[in-house]
Design a protein that fits this description.
single chain; alpha+beta; 4-stranded mixed sheet; 25% helix; globular
């Protein structure tokens, strides 16, 4: 069972399953007010009815309940629910108002240099 409490950008990439691009997407979603992002391995895509975020097959937005010792219940805004194995899923739970990505920091640095 993996739940990651996200307080900074580094927390989004704390799991080896998460690429740099996915970490950026998670941080961006959380900065837009999304509080929970669920990662499921690509091989699990055909085994559930959840809609991934645009452009991918591994990240999902929804609310998460601790359903049992072995499963999370993920519910999306359209009411679609699915039980996902805790052994397969990583739940990222936002604990702050904004997550600064490395790209944001570079943009601010470039702005300061002008």
């Amino acid at each position: 069972m993996t739940r990651v409490h996200v307080e900074s950008y580094d927390d989004t990439g704390a799991r080896r399953e998460i690429s740099g691009k996915a970490a950026d997407v998670i941080a961006e979603l959380m900065s837009e007010g999304i509080t929970t992002v669920v990662y499921l391995p690509r091989r699990m895509y055909d085994f559930h009815c959840l809609d991934p975020i645009s452009g991918g097959k591994t990240l999902f937005v929804g609310t998460v309940e601790d359903y049992s010792a072995d499963a999370w219940k993920v519910t999306q805004t359209d009411g679609t629910s699915e039980f996902v194995a805790k052994s397969q899923a990583v739940v990222f739970q936002c604990e702050v108002d904004e997550i600064e990505t490395p790209q944001q920091g570079l943009g601010e640095f470039a702005g300061d240099a002008q």
